[in-house]
Amino acid sequence: MTKLTSAQFDELCEQYSEIVVDRMETADLVEYVMNDLQNRYSQMSQTELREHIIEMENSGDPTDNLYDELAENVDVNAVGTCIVKGTDYSECVDRLVQSMEGN
Questions:
Q1: Could you give the CA distance from residue 13 to residue 53 in angstroms, rounded to a whole number?
Q2: CA distance 41 to 12
Q3: What is the distance between the alpha carbons of residues 77 and 99, in angstroms, rounded to a whole number?
Q4: What is the spatial distance between Cα 85 and Cα 27, in angstroms, rounded to a whole number?
Q5: What is the pLDDT of residue 85?
Q6: Would you call 54 exposed, middle or buried from its count of C-beta atoms within 10 A (0-12, 13-18, 19+)?
Q7: What pLDDT is stored for residue 103 in this prediction?
Q8: Could you tell me if 97 and 80 are in contact, meaning their C-beta atoms sit under 8 angstroms apart?
């Protein structure tokens, strides 16, 4: 086995990565990127993710806050799921009340 320098090894990794990507179907690439992004974002704290989303997605308008919109969607979806699948309806009611209060 040839001993490579660090720069040579980096180049080898880059070339092999290109070969692997060239073999992948579009759906495989999308799945890979989705998994990578989900893993990256799930490693962030809520505050870090909120700051990242604000930095990357918001127009600067204070009312334009994608993180808050997504959080609201998750909360509304959680209430709907709880009502459909839940067995502890008191928890569903608490979630519904919280979502109506904007918490």
A1: 31
A2: 29
A3: 10
A4: 31
A5: 59
A6: middle
A7: 47
A8: no
- The CA–CA distances, whole Å, from 8 to 1, 12, 16, 18, 20 equal 14, 6, 12, 15, 18
For residue 55, which of 45, 63, 65 has the smallest C-alpha distance? 65
Q: Closest by alpha carbon to 71, among 100, 43, 50?
A: 50
Q: Which amino acid is located at 88 in the chain? A: D
29 vs 99 pLDDT, higher one = 29
User: pLDDT tens digits, residue range 22-79?
Assistant: 999 999 999 999 999 999 999 999 999 988 988 888 767 767 788 888 888 776 565 5
CA distance linking residue 85 with residue 88, whole number of Å: 9
In the three-class reduction of DSSP (H, G, I as helix; E, B as strand; rest coil), residue 14 is classed as: helix
Report the pLDDT value the prediction gives residue 31, as an integer from 0 to 100. 93
